[in-house]
Specification:
11 helices; 8-stranded mixed sheet; alpha/beta; globular
Length: 277
């Protein structure tokens, strides 16, 4: 399904139903189908999945896809569906969007989940960032330029795919790696270039953590090459009602690497959000 929000096509799925919905926001450079394996476990929850600009069936941004603009798209989808409050779960860049949504519309947030995502600003502006994050940030401008000039997703695949999974996945699950490659390749290169530029400009969100009084979830992969588990544990500890889930053998894509455990964590989070509303 699609909606036109501020003149731009935004795609989404909505399972329908009563109660507080769970909004799922995918990572980069992926789309809303990345959550497919979690859907059966969420059968008792209204789930709304949204394609970020330039991904899936959503149109790309005209300029840098700032997190605030992406959060505005989420608000536009919820408005069109008549949803006042929702629990938000974001993977990677989706977590940045969820945090931005909380900053802008805290009264509409019934729960906040970060899935392999963090609260720091871009590592290019954060001297305390670890090596992996600094390396990722240093290449943002070049990656965005390549995506635009090449008109293909090859540069993004080359940058992200070799580090997205835990090491054993590359040795034992070639099917997952190829599945990831196929999903990355089908995204809009110009739209993804604007997402890269938008990530570079995102705000630090540490200041929000003390204000998160709704049920929260921080899910970390023990083998995530981008984010340290202890950093994410500290993020959970800074929120009043956050569960921390560590999936030891998962990398940066726990929805595929540990689908059942990720689904269980999301289902528990959604239930807590419903019960507290």
């Amino acid at each position: 399904m699609t909606l036109t929000i501020d003149g731009r096509r935004i795609a989404y799925d909505d399972t329908g139903g009563a109660g507080v919905p769970l909004v799922l926001l995918h990572g980069f450079p992926l789309d809303r189908t990345v959550w497919d394996e979690q859907m059966p476990a969420l059968a008792g929850t209204r789930v709304i999945r949204i394609d970020l600009r330039g991904c899936g069936e959503s149109e790309p941004s005209d300029g840098p896809a700032l997190m605030e603009a992406l959060a505005g798209d989420v608000a536009g989808v919820l408005d069109a569906l008549g949803v006042g409050r929702a629990a938000l779960a974001g993977h990677s860049i989706g977590g940045y969007v969820a945090l931005s949504f909380f900053r802008m519309f805290a009264e509409r947030v019934a729960g906040l989940a970060l899935i392999a995502s963090h609260v720091a600003q871009d590592a290019g502006r954060d001297a305390s960032a670890d090596c992996a994050q600094r390396e990722l940030a240093a290449g943002r401008d070049a990656l965005a330029a390549r995506l635009d000039s090449d008109g293909s997703m090859d540069a993004a695949v080359a940058s992200y795919l070799p580090r997205y999974f835990a090491p054993q996945v590359y040795r034992e699950r070639a099917d997952l790696v190829e599945r990831g490659r196929a999903m990355m390749q089908r995204q809009n290169p110009h739209g993804c270039a604007q997402l890269v530029r938008g990530m570079k400009e995102r705000l630090d969100s540490h200041d929000l953590l003390g204000d998160v009084e709704v049920p929260a979830l921080v899910l970390a992969g023990g083998a995530d090459s981008y984010l340290g588990a202890e950093t994410l544990r500290a993020t959970a500890a800074a929120m009043r009602d956050a569960a921390f889930v560590l999936l030891e053998d998962a990398g940066h894509l726990p929805m595929w690497e540990a689908p059942a455990a990720t689904a269980e964590a999301l289902a528990s989070f959604a239930q807590r959000a419903r019960e507290s509303s």
